[in-house]
């Protein structure tokens, strides 16, 4: 690499984030952006933020300085042949657990840019390079569009964070995106008529003034039908991210509207929702350290739904393996910035696959227009992605990239694995 440089950009919530630019020997420049979460797990890798008053304490001056000095000194003037080499060197340079010195935001942006550099050197599209280095069978994923927002992503009283629709029965990537857009616009009409406004949450989904999950689910079913499609777990399905950390009371108790539920009560509530609505997936149904709750949920509902761990696993291969051994879930969410590097992200997917878990690739609530996760999900062939609503530039950038890949390679299969 000839040069390493970083710059401050704004994410989709108006906060600074890191962009790393790598200048290659042939004059090409590749980039990588770091996303940021609002609902973050306690076990995630650590972002480096300045504190103080600028940008509400979220500025990244220190991170930019470390990239332009320490990381630039590490990467430039050397030949790199594998992403594992780059990522191991970054981890050694940092020397802490969770990238506390350099910052996970600095490291993930550098690792993404380095992946693009290596794909370019190999003469391959990024998704194909990922497929080759992992030995995966690439495929186009089912998009899970977050069309109703609550929790930490919205200003309403809805405890559940994400209500998604998934066109499982679509015939192609283009068909899936069209279905998502059709339902989103039908939902817009319903929300406008019933609530008089179209306020949005962080991920582009509508955030009407509702509190009960059933209200949101009724809206989704009505919108799917209004758009001309059939709600169903094998048709246009619904997926939930309750993000139970946000309504956990501790000690296995959870706030649900004006009530308090114990673990068994919460699992029974999810069972009632599954009995009533076409729900195929529930993510973070329990708080991140409520292993007993996850275990009970998996035992009771794991044969009916995809039970996904996000804050529970934070894309950490060892935590995923432990969760599999303890039978906590049957799927893991994958977010590169939770763990820090592309190599570790690929390791998390490989670990999940090796123990029979599904993987869903995911964006963050604070996003950029970087489309790395679109290539990641195709290259690893996990078969499912969530990237917010089919609206807002930082969200549709991923869906547009998926459509582009599908158009260029119509032989790639579409759908869940």
List the helices and strands and how they pair.
Elements: E1 3-10, E2 16-23, E3 29-33, H1 61-75, H2 83-94, H3 104-122, H4 126-134, E4 142-149, E5 162-167, H5 173-195, H6 213-226, E6 236-241, E7 248-250, E8 253-256, E9 259-261, H7 263-276, E10 279-283, H8 291-301, E11 306-309, H9 317-325, E12 331-334, H10 336-339, H11 342-354, E13 358-362, H12 372-380, E14 384-388, H13 393-408
Parallel strand pairs: 4-14, 6-10, 10-11, 11-12, 12-13, 13-14
Antiparallel strand pairs: 1-2, 2-3, 4-5, 5-6, 7-8, 8-9
Question: What would a concise description of this structure say?
Answer:
This protein has 417 residues and is an alpha/beta fold. The protein contains 13 helices and 14 strands.
Overview of the structural elements:
The strands form 3 sheets. The chain has an 8-stranded mixed beta barrel, surrounded by 6 helices. Strands 1-2-3 form a 3-stranded antiparallel beta sheet. Strands 7-8-9 form a 3-stranded antiparallel beta sheet. It has helices at 61-75, 83-94, 104-122, 126-134, 173-195, 213-226, 263-276, 291-301, 317-325, 336-339, 342-354, 372-380, 393-408; strands at 3-10, 16-23, 29-33, 142-149, 162-167, 236-241, 248-250, 253-256, 259-261, 279-283, 306-309, 331-334, 358-362, 384-388. The chain is of the alpha/beta class. Helix 7 (263-276) packs parallel to helix 8 and helix 9 (317-325) runs parallel beside helix 11 (342-354). 40% of the residues lie in helices and 18% in strands. It is built from 13 helices and 14 strands. GO terms for molecular function: phosphopyruvate hydratase activity. Keywords: Cytoplasm, Glycolysis, Lyase, Magnesium, Metal-binding, Secreted. Its EC number is 4.2.1.11. This is Enolase.
